[in-house]
Every structure is written in C-alpha cells, then in structure tokens.
Design goal:
Layout: E1 2-3, H1 6-11, E2 36-40, H2 47-59, E3 67-71, H3 78-85, E4 93-98, H4 99-103, H5 105-108, E5 121-137, H6 145-154, E6 159-163, H7 169-181, E7 185-189, H8 193-201, E8 208-211, H9 212-215, E9 223-228, E10 254-262, H10 267-281, H11 284-292, E11 298-299, H12 303-324
Parallel strand pairs: 2-3, 2-4, 6-7
Antiparallel strand pairs: 1-11, 4-10, 5-8, 5-9, 5-10
C-alpha cells in the first residue's frame, strides 16, 4: 500500500499521477450513472463514518453523480458487510470497513462471521491507515520502553494491561508483546478506549495499548507513550520510537479502512472506483482532514494488491489468534 505523506501531496498534484484513461473520472466521465451508497457498519460521528463522508464528497462527479453514506449498524460491523455482500453488483453500493472486521474478526467470531472478504466481496483499495501505541501513566517510573520491560520483569505477579476490547487488535498486540519480552501479562478488556485511558491516567492500570489518535491527546499530560506500531516515527511525536526500531518487529502493525464492492462486480467498475479513490486521496482537503484525525491517506496500488494485502494480513492474524490461546466468544 502507498502511504501518501502530507508534504508530498501538498507539494505536487502529480504525486500519484495516473496513466491516461486509468479511470473514467480522469476524463470527466462517471463510472456509475446513479447515486452510489457508501455503507458503514458503525454509528454516525465515529471515525469510520467521518472518513466515509470525506471520501464520498470527493467521489461525487468522478465515480457517481452523488455518493451518500448509509449506516448499517450492528454486530460489530458484520451487518454492513452482509448487506453489501448481497447488494446489486452494479457499483451503486460499496462497503467501507476497518481492516480488523475482515481480517481479524473471522477468527474471534468464527460462527458469526458468515462472510469471506475475498470471495463474497471484491476488494478495491484502502483509504487511510493509522498505528497503535503503548502508553503508561505519566508518573510511571519507566521513561522508555526498555525501562518498562525491565520493570515488567521485576514484578512478582502478573501485570495487567488494557485494550479497548477483547479480541481486538490491541488485545493481541499486548499478548505478542508479553511473549516477545518474556513478561507475564493479564489482559483487561474495556468497552472502548475512553474508560481504559481514564483508568490508566488514574493509576489503576500500568499499561494500555490502543489507537494512537485515542491516546495522543493526553501525551505528556496524564500518560506517556513509549512506542508506536508504525513503520516510521510519527511526525507529530518524533520523540516516540517505533517498536520496530527497538527490535520488536512483530509489533509493527497498523489498522486501515478499506473499500470493497460485492463479489462479481464488473472489473471496469472496480477499476473506476479504485482510480477515483486514488485521485481523492491526493487532494489537499483529504490529506488535511485525515491529518487532523492523525490518519494517513493510504491507498492500494491496485485492487489486486489490496486483495493480496487482505489475504496476507488475514493469514497472520489466524496464526496470532491461534498461538495466543484465545477462546472465541461463540
């Protein structure tokens, strides 16, 4: 996937120059001649809905005459996926979903996840990505990740760590971290990041792993980020190292939002939507809006590349969940 850096995108509109005729929108034509619906599985006002609306506005006129965002909320995003799976294959309905719903959830909810992203859907492209971070209370004696590892190993009992939910990506990142450093950690699941961060700041937890954008507002206030899971340091937090540079390569992992159409959608429509997304991602408006969320406008080089990325990530999560000993909730 291509990470489109803010500086590059704002410096030149040709940063992602597309071949002539690569997508119909490039010539002013529309791929779909009727209103299209972007289906999201989470409530209005949340990050998934916000990002879907950002792109919908800029797909208007290039992909379809109008694009509206419609919520199909429930079952942790699965209702939206099943709705798109069963929709018409004419490009008027597409899904925008967080990665974990199609790459991780099938192993956490094996009986309920009645879909396969690569056979029931047609992958188009990712639209943005964002890393996770590990944080400790601001008054914790560990100032660095190395200090924290030493502190963990000195504890006589298992040390609790929190994540936003059982079976979430941060949950398994914590399990992987404990295994990598040889520490005994106990997972404490919360219902969302806010209550977990409150308990972290209050000193009731020694460690939390969650989305960078959820943690960063309290950086150097009530908490301290020790490392992030991105490939490179975040430009806003240059003093926070990556797990990779500290030697924990297994912890290099980001979440992304992606767009998929129903399986069997004609290739010209898939290609047209991909091209329209790429063009939207290089606009200064998208870059700036995603930057405010601390997201990167990350797009796939092609639908085939996106499908390969889904397959690879799904296989990795299958191994991670299996080796963690996690018991599915159903």
């Amino acid at each position: 996937m291509m990470h489109l850096r803010r500086r590059t995108l704002l410096a030149t509109a040709g940063a992602l120059a597309l071949p002539a005729g690569f997508f119909p929108g490039a010539a002013g034509a529309q791929t779909v001649q009727r209103t299209a619906r972007a289906i999201v599985g989470f409530p209005a006002g949340g990050s998934s809905d916000i990002v879907a609306r950002l792109y919908a506005e800029r797909l208007r006129g290039s992909y379809a005459p109008s694009v509206i965002v419609e919520g199909k909320v429930g079952a942790a995003g699965r209702i939206a996926i099943e709705f798109v799976r069963d929709a018409d294959k004419d490009g008027t309905v597409y899904l925008q979903t967080p990665a974990s719903i199609i790459t991780l959830a099938p192993y956490v909810f094996p009986r309920e996840a009645r879909y396969d992203a690569l056979t029931d859907l047609s992958p188009v492209s990712s639209v943005c990505s964002f890393p996770f971070a590990m944080a400790v209370p601001a008054n914790h004696p560990a100032r660095t990740l190395q200090d924290f590892v030493a502190w963990l190993k000195a504890q006589p009992n298992e040390v609790p760590f929190a994540s936003p939910a059982a079976g979430s990506a941060p949950h398994f990142l914590g399990v992987m971290f404990g295994k990598d450093v040889g520490a005994r950690l106990t997972h404490v699941p919360y219902r969302g990041a806010v209550p977990a961060i409150q308990d972290l700041i209050g000193g009731r937890l020694p460690m939390f792993i969650g989305v960078l954008g959820d943690i960063s507002p309290q950086q150097n206030q009530g908490l301290r980020m020790l490392a992030i899971t991105a490939e490179q340091r975040h430009p806003r937090y240059p003093d926070v190292p990556t797990f990779r540079e500290l030697g924990y390569t297994n912890m290099t992992r980001s979440e992304w939002f992606g767009v998929l159409l129903p399986a069997g959608t004609p290739a010209p429509i898939v290609t047209g939507l991909h091209g329209a997304i790429v063009a939207a991602a290089r606009t200064s408006e998208i870059v700036a809006a995603l930057d405010r969320l601390e997201y990167l406008p990350t797009v796939s080089a092609s639908p085939a590349e996106f499908a390969a990325a889904i397959r690879k990530e799904r296989d990795e999560w299958a191994t991670i969940v299996r080796e963690s000993g996690f018991q599915p909730e159903n």
